[in-house]
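Exercise 3.2. Students should predict the tertiary structure of the chain below and write it as structure tokens, then compare their answer with the key that follows.

Predict this chain's 3D structure.
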Amino acid sequence: MKPDPPPFRVMLDALGLPAGAGAYVGDSPEHDVRGAIAAGLIAWHVHAHPRVRERALAVGAALSVAVLADLPRPS
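Answer key:
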């Protein structure tokens, strides 16, 4: 179970991708951000509350935004 790395690695294996191929987007600093980082992924965080966003950045999220629309678009 998240935040342990295996669920993230199962996702990567299913997609046929290496960990560095993209970013994992989640709303939980404890489960999503920590787990993604532990699996070697970049972690992006989405949550409306500013304190939760601060916590996500403190645990290592590369980015934390209030809404999905604020995430960078793939190039």
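Discussion points: The first helix runs from residue 6 to 15. The mean pLDDT is 94.
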